[in-house]
Amino acid sequence: MISSDPRPPAVTGHRVTFVRVLAAEWTKLSGLRWMPWLMTVTVVAATVLALVLSLFARVGTPALELTTSGHLAAQLGLLALGALIGSGEFSTGTCRSTFTAVPRRLPVLMAQMLLTAGIAAVTATLALVGAHLATADHQGFPALGTEPSQTLRISVGFVLQLTLVALLGLGTGALVRSPAAALTTLVVLFVVLEQFLVANPGPVADTVRALTPGSGTRLFADQTGLDDLAAGAGPELGAWGGGAVLAGWTSLVLLAAAYRLRRHDVT
Amino acid sequence: MRSTWVAALATVAVAGGLTYLDASASSSDPGFDPVRSLGFAVPFATVGLLVLGVLVGTSEFSTGNFRSTFVAVPRRLSVLAGQVLAMTVFAALVAVLAVGSSVLAILPSAASRGITPDLGGDGVLRNLIGSVVLLSGTGLVGAALGAWVRRPVAALVAAVGICLVLPMVLVLAADLVTDPLAASAAGGSSAPESPLETFARFTPTGAADSLLWREGGALQGVLVLAGWVVLPLTAAAIRLSRRDLV
After folding, report:
1. CA-CA distance, A186 to A190, in Å (whole number)?
2. Of A78, A101, B119, B233, which one's alpha carbon is 20 to 30 angstroms from that of A6?
3. What is the pLDDT of residue B68?
4. How many domains is chain A partitioned into structurally?
5. A131 touches B at CB < 8 Å
6. How confident is the model at residue A192 (pLDDT cuts 50, 70, 90)?
7. B11 and B95 in contact (C-beta within 8 Å)?
8. What is the sign of the dihedral through the CA atoms of B122, B128, B131 and B133?
9. Number of folded domains in chain B?
10. Which residue range(s) make up the domain with B174?
């Protein structure tokens, strides 16, 4: 009996479901050679940065400030991570087979979002733990955990901010479709603009600063930092307000990317 | 390459546009001096040239052109030399255009107050020439890093890390090191140079600072900047002549 059933068995067994798309995206991402490298370099850079700064810092600097100082390095790494994942589909040409296999297209972006969020959260947590271990018992600084609620908010905020940053990177990468262009845009938005606005304080600059994605750093700013920002001329957002601004940017860019993916050509 | 021209145009436009905005924003101040707005857009233009340099430096490898290029020129290093020369000319051109557009951008607000901007006097000329040198140098730093690393994103991350994030780290470090009370007690300028400041001198941002502002620091700025070009370029040359292309 060779074939009594005219239907090819492959069709019944392999419908496109979200779980399968997710599994396929995971296979793709975990096979990328640069991924473990980028994660390692990000964690190591954040840890070393915090360690070096703790060697310089005068006695009495709050340990939390040192721990989160690794953020400057971690943010760049996660921006690159997001931009690479978001644009990788298009810069390598994989998009042709991917979107032939998943003609509805949006599940692919959703799966990439979930995976990027997971990878970013793991990287950010490792960076935070690394920076904490590298600085905690140094020169008798007040240990992490002097004020539990504050410490928890800062730790969660640190991971949350970096996760949102990676997702914004993913959205920009998927929208622009070229890794270099996406990364340049993100660096201008996160680093250049922020530095520029800090250097020229004023009512306009402070308001703009509160509304740029860099506002998300308030999620892990300590109380002194938040008070300083509140004393400025910009609107008072508080820690979670800053996070909401960043989340707003992230969702806006992801929506734009989804729109382009759904409505426009893939290549 | 299209992206090169986009980056070059964006750089020139940003330099002119931001300087214009700054000049017209401050033109209502009583002590308005249009010349002071000239340096305003330089940090932004620096980013443009950095990206431009990285794109040019990696282009051979990101497009796959290198296969035919190095079959045609098996000695390889002459290709790198040619690229550096071409990039120097191109970066200098973009730098001159960017600085020129910021000079043009201050004219409307200067005219509105009836001031003739004095470009020749009191360090202004040095600042203009310094800006051109700084911008071209930054383009070359980007190109050298790109030729060494060969991947646009990796090279961009390295370039941004060195030129943009490192200065932020140094500011943070200075913040952590200095006790605000001790600094005000010492009276500021009389304090000896800290190791941190010495280190900062040798970063690209420190070079920019010496080149543009510090009294008698022009030569040092040029040398530090040249170092940041020569080191990655040497690494790129070694990689190109000794190692695989792919």
Report:
1. 6
2. A101
3. 86
4. 1
5. no
6. confident
7. no
8. negative
9. 1
10. 2-242
Position A31 in a domain:
yes
Q: Which residue of A has its CA nearest to B18?
A: A196
In a domain, A166, yes or no: yes
- The continuous run of DSSP H or E covering A12 comes out as helix A9-13
Other CB atoms closer than 10 Å to residue B230's CB: what's the count?
Answer: 13
Q: What is the pLDDT of residues A231-256, one digit of tens each?
A: 777 777 888 888 999 999 999 999 99
- Cβ distance A89 to A115 under 8 Å? no
Q: Name the band, by pLDDT with cuts 50, 70 and 90, for residue A165.
A: very high
* Residue range of the domain that includes A183: 16-263
Find residues 57-96 of chain B whose CB sits inside 8 Å of chain A.
none
Distance separating alpha carbons of residues A174 and A182, to the nearest angstrom: 9
**CA–CA dist A111, A61 (Å, integer):** 42
B29 and chain A in contact, CB less than 8 A: no
pLDDT band at B92 (very low <50, low <70, confident <90, very high): very high
Percentage of chain B beyond pLDDT 70 is 91
Q: According to the model, what pLDDT value does residue A11 have?
A: 53
Rounded distance between C-alpha atoms, residue B1 and residue A137, angstroms:
53
Among residues A171, A87, A92, A82, the alpha carbon closest in space to that of A124 is found at: A82
B204-212 and B124-149 helices, crossing angle to 10° = 160
- Tell me: pLDDT of B237 over 50: yes
In angstroms, what separates the C-alpha of B161 from chain A's closest C-alpha? 8
Distance CA(A161)–CA(A218), nearest Å, equals 9
Residue A9 lies in a domain: no
Chain A contacts in chain B segment 213-242 (CB below 8 A): none
A151 in reach of chain B (CB within 8 A): no
Amino acid at B167: P
Assigned token pair, A5: 């059933």
Q: What is the ipTM of this complex?
A: 0.80
What is the Cα–Cα distance from B139 to B83, expressed in whole angstroms? 12
CA A211 to chain centre: 18
In a domain, A246, yes or no: yes
pTM of the model: 0.85
Q: Is A32 on the interface with B (CB under 8 A)?
A: no
Separation between Cα atoms, residue B79 and residue B81, nearest integer Å: 5
Q: Does B176 touch chain A (CB under 8 A)?
A: yes
Asked whether the beta carbons of residue A49 and residue B169 sit closer than 8 angstroms, the reply is yes
For residues A147 and A128, give the distance between their C-alpha atoms in angstroms, rounded to a whole number.
Answer: 17
A-B C-beta contacts closer than 8 Å = 74
